């Protein structure tokens, strides 16, 4: 039994690429059988959409791209290019290592446009942050004490990360710990408390609204004892709509182990369609009021002279990349399922490594460009997609995808919307096979102009 179709929402550039099998074949000939294509213009448009929401809500906004979502230098350069013509501190990058920090600087991002997150920062990261006037989130009392004991020679701007009401998280401070950190920081003239941050699991609006109000309250209390406290970071977790809502509802309502090759449903699934996503979700967080506060987060931030920072990763990469694999073999399993073996591995489609499944359907492309006759009835050919390794678990798609024809050796399988966390979160040179390169589209010159991301 095959799974139901899950057609992806596709941007115009991607639809155009799928009509150019000659271009896809040319890319494969130039760089190898597996590769990713990224579109920095779409990434830049997503940046602009979030900025427009801040402007419409009258809120001073700071947008920091979560670098971990995709390591493409082209995306970080897009942040730097946007920052060059925007109000100060509008755009930047969220990093969690000295290597990411250095890569952001090399791409043209200024130090003051860098937000440093993550636990237990290394001395190298703290030195870079102080030297380049970056902002650092500290998430434990012990981190605060360590920074105070080893105060850098230059000013260090910090946020204190607040712990949500979640007993399973290991990040953030609450209650006594947060109060103690604020009090301890009064003793330093070089560690500057710029505000508070939080990051929530899940993709719901109202928990973020509630935490944002708590962070604004914390800023107001910190100001009363002399701290500048002018920034609230609400983190990431901005949802992305990969498929139409009706298709996602159908999948959730009917999901069956019979759809999957191993007979097991996914342990967890990303919400591939939500009530509100992208920039519209930010608008809800900023502009909607809840029962506990008559004023919205945006109104309170504006009246208090606070700026709101967001750190989206997946949401900025939405629609900005696809992944291409070449079919190496097709055979039929004893249960009648076609197994398509492709170049590359499931490590280049990272969702599979979290007891999950990447649901938007891939497209099967004939590199010769042949198309079925329009009057030919479509006969579905259920198939799973496997990587070219010795691992039984190396499956890019373990659900039986209802392809419109049977795959052939040499075909291309194109996975949609993979820029956010899919391309390189888990990639490695397993079997000494090179990691698939990222190819950057340059639409301003020609739809067929591209280069390797470096």
**CATH level-1 class of the largest domain:** Alpha Beta
Cα shape: elongated
Estimated share of beta-strand residues? 15-25%
Q: What is the number of independent domains?
A: 2
Q: Give the class from helix and strand content and strand pairing.
A: alpha/beta
* Overall pLDDT metric: 94
CATH topology of the largest domain: TIM Barrel
Describe the structure.
The protein is of the alpha/beta class. It folds into two domains: 12-39 and 319-452, Lyase, Ornithine Decarboxylase, Chain A, domain 1 (Beta Barrel); 40-239 and 274-317, Alpha-Beta Barrel (TIM Barrel). It contains 13 helices and 17 strands. It has helices at residues 12-18, 21-31, 40-56, 73-84, 98-106, 123-132, 141-149, 175-185, 205-224, 245-254, 278-287, 297-304, 314-317; strands spanning 35-38, 60-66, 91-95, 114-116, 135-138, 156-161, 191-197, 231-233, 307-310, 321-332, 338-342, 363-365, 381-386, 395-403, 412-415, 438-441, 450-452. The strands form two sheets. Strands 1, 10, 11, 12, 13, 14, 15, 16 and 17 form a nine-stranded mixed sheet that branches. It has an eight-stranded parallel β-barrel with strand order 2-3-4-5-6-7-8-9, surrounded by eight helices. Strand 13 (381-386) and strand 14 form a beta hairpin. Helix 9 packs across helix 11. The longest helix has 20 residues, at 205-224. The radius of gyration is 24 Å and the shape is elongated. The two termini are 43 Å apart.
Question: Layout of SSEs?
Answer:
Layout: H1 12-18, H2 21-31, E1 35-38, H3 40-56, E2 60-66, H4 73-84, E3 91-95, H5 98-106, E4 114-116, H6 123-132, E5 135-138, H7 141-149, E6 156-161, H8 175-185, E7 191-197, H9 205-224, E8 231-233, H10 245-254, H11 278-287, H12 297-304, E9 307-310, H13 314-317, E10 321-332, E11 338-342, E12 363-365, E13 381-386, E14 395-403, E15 412-415, E16 438-441, E17 450-452
Parallel strand pairs: 1-16, 2-3, 2-9, 3-4, 4-5, 5-6, 6-7, 7-8, 8-9, 11-13
Antiparallel strand pairs: 1-10, 10-11, 10-15, 12-15, 13-14, 16-17
Helix pairs in contact: 3-4, 3-11, 7-8, 9-11, 9-12
EC number: 4.1.1.20
Protein name: Diaminopimelate decarboxylase
Pfam family, one: Orn_Arg_deC_N
């Amino acid at each position: 039994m095959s799974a139901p179709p899950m057609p992806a929402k596709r941007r115009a550039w991607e639809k155009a690429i799928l009509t150019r099998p000659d271009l896809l074949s040319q890319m494969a000939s130039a760089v190898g059988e597996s590769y990713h294509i990224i579109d920095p213009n779409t990434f830049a448009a997503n940046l602009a959409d979030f900025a427009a929401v801040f402007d419409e809500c009258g809120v001073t906004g700071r947008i920091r791209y979560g670098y971990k979502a995709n390591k493409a230098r082209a995306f970080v350069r897009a942040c730097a290019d946007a920052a060059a013509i925007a109000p100060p501190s509008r755009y930047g990058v969220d990093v969690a290592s000295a290597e990411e920090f250095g890569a952001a600087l090399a791409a043209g991002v200024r130090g003051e446009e860098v937000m440093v997150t993550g636990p237990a920062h290394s001395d190298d990261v703290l030195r870079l942050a102080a030297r380049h006037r970056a902002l650092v989130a500290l998430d434990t009392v012990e981190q605060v004490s360590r920074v105070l004991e080893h105060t850098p020679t230059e000013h260090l701007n910090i946020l204190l990360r607040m712990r949500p009401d979640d007993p399973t998280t290991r990040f953030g401070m609450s209650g006594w710990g947060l109060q103690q950190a604020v009090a301890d920081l009064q003793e330093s003239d070089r560690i500057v408390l710029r505000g508070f941050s939080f990051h929530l699991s899940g993709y719901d609006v109202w928990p973020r609204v509630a935490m944002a109000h708590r962070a604004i309250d914390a800023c107001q209390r910190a100001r009363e004892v002399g701290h500048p406290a002018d920034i609230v970071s609400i983190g990431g977790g901005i949802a992305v709509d990969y498929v139409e809502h009706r298709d996602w509802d159908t999948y959730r309502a009917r999901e069956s182990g019979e759809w999957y090759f191993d007979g097991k449903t996914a342990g967890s699934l990303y919400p591939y369609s939500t009530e509100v996503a992208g920039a519209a979700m930010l608008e809800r967080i900023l502009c909607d009021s809840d029962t506990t506060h008559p004023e919205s987060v945006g109104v309170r931030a504006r009246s208090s002279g606070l700026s709101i920072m967001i750190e989206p990763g997946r949401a900025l990469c939405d629609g900005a990349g696809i992944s291409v694999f070449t079919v190496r073999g097709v055979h039929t399993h004893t249960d009648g399922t076609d197994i398509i073996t492709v170049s590359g591995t499931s490590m280049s489609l990272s969702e599979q490594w979290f007891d999950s499944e990447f649901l938007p359907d891939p497209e099967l492309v004939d590199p010769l460009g042949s198309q079925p006759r329009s009057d030919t009835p479509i006969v579905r050919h259920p198939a799973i997609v496997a990587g070219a390794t010795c691992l039984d678990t190396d499956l890019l798609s373990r659900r039986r995808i209802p392809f419109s024809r049977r795959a052939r050796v040499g075909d291309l399988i194109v996975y949609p919307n993979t820029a956010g966390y899919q391309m390189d979160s888990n990639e490695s040179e397993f079997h000494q096979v090179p990691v698939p390169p990222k190819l950057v589209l340059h639409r301003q010159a020609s739809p067929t102009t591209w280069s390797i991301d470096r």
